[in-house]
Specification:
There is one protein chain. Helix content is about 35%, strand content about 20%. It is an alpha/beta fold and about 180 residues long. It has one domain (about 1-180). It has a three-stranded mixed sheet with strand order 4-6-7. Strands 1-3 form a two-stranded parallel sheet. A hairpin with a 2-residue loop joins strand 6 and strand 7 (about 100-105). Helix 2 (about 20-45) crosses helix 3 and helix 2 (about 20-45) packs across helix 5. It starts with a strand and ends in a 16-residue tail after the last helix.
């Protein structure tokens, strides 16, 4: 997920968040809702009444950590020309967008030799930095039954959350996903 405070970027990419807080909140809601949905399904499958499931879910703590990508400017792959980075643009990240997804970036220029970003040829394009591609989190519980679950049980829950997220409306934004339980 990415964000931009620039109106022209948001006009090109309708799904981009308008600021850092909303990008972080979107990812957090997506993950937290996935965890709750999976545990609710699991509780119902075990025959637990909805009122009890609600109590169990209230005993969960889910923390999500994610660093959204800030797109100061954008360029769609439909635009075939190169982008000359003026002195102001040299200090900002340009996101290269295909469809509705940021695919690569033109990083801030480090000198005059890096003043032209050419998406059609790949000149100066870089992969999205890894810190913007990783979502991590922790699940804690004060529920005595869930607290005694083994690693396999939690891995099963987290794998189902992952499947739910990747099959949802933002699933195309996930190229790969890996989940570990510690």
């Amino acid at each position: 997920m990415a964000y931009s405070t620039a109106a022209d970027v948001r006009a090109q990419v309708s799904s981009i968040s308008p600021n850092l807080n909303s990008a972080e909140a979107l990812v957090k809601r997506l993950v937290i809702q996935g965890v709750f949905d999976v545990l609710e399904q699991q509780g119902r499958a075990a025959g637990i009444p909805d009122a009890m499931i609600a109590i169990i879910l209230s005993q969960l703590g889910v923390n999500v950590f994610y660093t959204p990508l800030h797109c100061s400017t954008s360029l769609t792959l439909i635009q075939q020309q190169s982008v000359d980075q003026d002195s102001m643009a040299m200090m900002r990240t340009t996101c290269v967008i295909f469809g509705n997804t940021v695919t690569t970036i033109c990083p801030p220029a480090t000198g005059p030799a890096q003043m032209k970003c050419m998406p059609m040829t790949g000149v100066l394009l870089m992969p999205i930095p890894p810190q913007h591609l990783s979502i991590s989190g922790t699940i804690t519980t004060s529920n005595i039954v869930m607290a005694s679950w083994n690693r396999v049980m939690w891995q099963s829950v987290v794998n189902r959350v992952l499947r739910m997220i990747t099959s949802g409306p933002f699933g195309t934004h996930f190229a790969t996903a890996v989940v570990t339980v510690t």
